[in-house]
Amino acid sequence: MKTIFSATAGAVLGSIVIIFALAIMSGGESLMLRELAFSLSCNALFCGLCWWLLAKIKSTDNLYFDALAGACLALAGWLALPLALVKRKRLPNVGGRLLLFGKLSYALPALAFFLLPQMRIAPQMLERPGLKLSAVDSIPNSDAPNVLLVVADTLRADVVLDPEVPTPNLDALRENGTWADYAVAPCNQTLPSHLVLLTGFDIEKVGMRGNLSRWPSRSMLADNKCLPIAERYQLAGYNTAAVSTNMLLSSVDEDAGHQAFSDGFDTWHGIHYQTPFVDFLSVIGRHTLMGQILPTRFITFPLNRILFPNDIKHFLPHYKEGERTTNSAIDYLKDLQQDDRPYFMLAQYFDPHSPYIAPNPTRGSIARPDQRPAGYSAAPEDEYFMRVNLRSYCDSESRPDDFLPLSDYLHALYKEEVVYFDQHLGRLLEQSKLGSRETIIIFVSDHGEGFGLHGGVEHGSSLYNEEILVPFIISGPGVAKSNRLSYAPEMIDAVYTMLELSKITTVSVDGQSVVDGEYQARPAVSFKIDHVSVIDGDYKFYASLTYPDDSKPYELIPLTLYDLSTDFEERNNIIEASPEVVSAMRGIIATRMANDLFPHITKRELSGKQLQQLGELGYTE
To answer: What structural domains does the chain harbor?
Structure first.
């Protein structure tokens, strides 16, 4: 044991040298001290054990030599074997203090973990690409409008009309345009809804059901006469640019032929960040003895779980993300407004997607400290554990007493995110007013958000109203002001209306215009994996929908029916009392399913990186 303790002491001292060297090189600003001290002290213990095994080659009691060996092991593991072969002089009865330090070293991992501050440095956003202008020869007429499509990820419709939630910029946008209390989204997850928006195809023609489902190929959609919306503007001579904050939109496997969101955009800025968590674990794996000897997963997995729990990994990259998204979008707008051509620009915000971490002074304005459930701190990343616990409550047979307080508090944190988002949306809208051309503004969301009241937390678990009803606002030239629609449009109607107002071809585009006075409401169909819902008039129908085999017809099992005119909360299932309505709903689905692309798409193989990204956003276990 003396050999182990002395070698451990030397390894600790060698590790301290490493920390000091890194602190000097980095200036201390980006040094992950707690994480580094914990990892290197664990490595020191490992070095002590390894040296004890190597020291069996030449057994002796030279504790100072053992300490030197431990230090070398910590600094450079490849020195281990040469040192083990060196003949060491016996020096008995020395190194008492060294042994004591070696014994105390076994407490260093715990001391580093509990006493040093957790890493709080936000990952830096990678540099945005330079703006590319159109290469098309023709330039649209001088009266051709600019078009700004703003998509707020995970924004449910009711929150922007909630008097408790101050959204002056969205309020002003409604006053200057045509809007609806809500529109119906085609899916309760990001990728299918955005693909509908950017292709102009109904959800069944896209063939997707969720973020993890099959992905249509570019060629399959082109065979069905799909021309992406950005490409339509591009061919008309517009400059096209996009800022997309949700990483999933920028992670399409184009090598597999999948339809990309970026098609038609001259400039696509998919916001990405440096990866300090991943980079740190990689360094530990490559440059420590335990990383060189043990299988990589034996090192990175436990360190990842211990040092970087999901709360901190989710909290840091998304803190003040709305500000960064707006800054990037404004930079592009300034350049676009200097060119003679009109522009079509997508500004895709991640807010108010979880985590709900509005910065000060917005934080605490709705989710007051006295309403915070017991057992949670004021630290902003604690909301992660709130979501985890609320989800576990939903999965349990009975709901505890703190279920509703927890649900209400998370909902309040979410509302603060909406307030924060509105503040930065105002900056973007102000910039869009500049330039010589008028600008069409389209504002929608891809899906909503749940807080456990129907058993689902966040989104992706159901097709209840909170997950598929989204805001819908259009303003600009040719759009009536302060015009509240008397009906609920579909999200895809925003695309059709946008193209029509721009005088861009709408051939092979689904949806209808909400400004020409000829709107004919149709049943709104929404999908999730293995389920479908239909809203037709006052009724909402929900059913399971599966393909037992791609070569066989789909199977549909009716589940619920609600009368939204008297039961908008979807509490009273009237399916048994309304067989004629269920029959009509079946017919609607059958008509739409005649164009379903899903059974014709090959199953999708997800890469490790895609699974990691989906996991970071809460879509995988």
So the answer is: 2-118 (no CATH), 146-281+295-368+413-515 (3.40.720.10)
Summary count for the chain: helices (H), strands (E): 22, 14
**Cα separation, 213 vs 158, whole angstroms:** 28
Low-confidence ranges of the chain (pLDDT < 70): 1-11, 13-14, 22-30, 51-103, 606-621
Longest CA span, the chain: 99
DSSP type of residue 212: T
Tell me which DSSP letter residue 144 carries.
P
Rounded to 5 degrees, φ, ψ at 517 are 75, 10
Query: How buried is 621 (Cβ within 10 angstroms: 0-12 exposed, 13-18 middle, 19+ buried)?
Result: exposed
For residue 150, report the phi and psi dihedrals to the nearest 5 degrees. -110, 125
Per-residue CA distances from 229 to 223, 332, 419, 471, 507 (Å): 16, 19, 30, 20, 11
Report the candidate in 479, 600, 596 with the shortest Cα–Cα distance to residue 174: 479
Relative to beta strand 343-349, strand 146-152 is parallel
Q: Is 291 exposed, middle or buried (0-12, 13-18, 19+ CB in 10 A)?
A: buried
Query: Given this model, what pLDDT does residue 84 score?
Result: 40
Element (H, E) at 378: none
Alpha-carbon torsion 70, 72, 75, 77, what sign?
negative
pLDDT given for residue 201 in this prediction: 97
Q: Compute the CA torsion angle 431, 436, 442, 443 (nearest 10 deg).
A: 10
For the stretch 411-437, pLDDT in tens is: 999 999 999 999 999 999 999 999 889
Residues contacting residue 189 through CB under 8 Å, at least 6 positions apart: 210, 211, 446, 447, 459, 460, 528, 619
Whole-number pLDDT of residue 274: 80
Tens of pLDDT along 563-602? 999 999 999 999 999 999 999 999 999 999 999 999 999 8
CA 100-105-109 angle, to 5 degrees, is: 160
Distance CA 102, CA 110 (A): 15
d(CA 379, CA 315): 10
Q: How many residues does the chain have?
A: 621
Beta strands 177-184 and 469-475 are: antiparallel
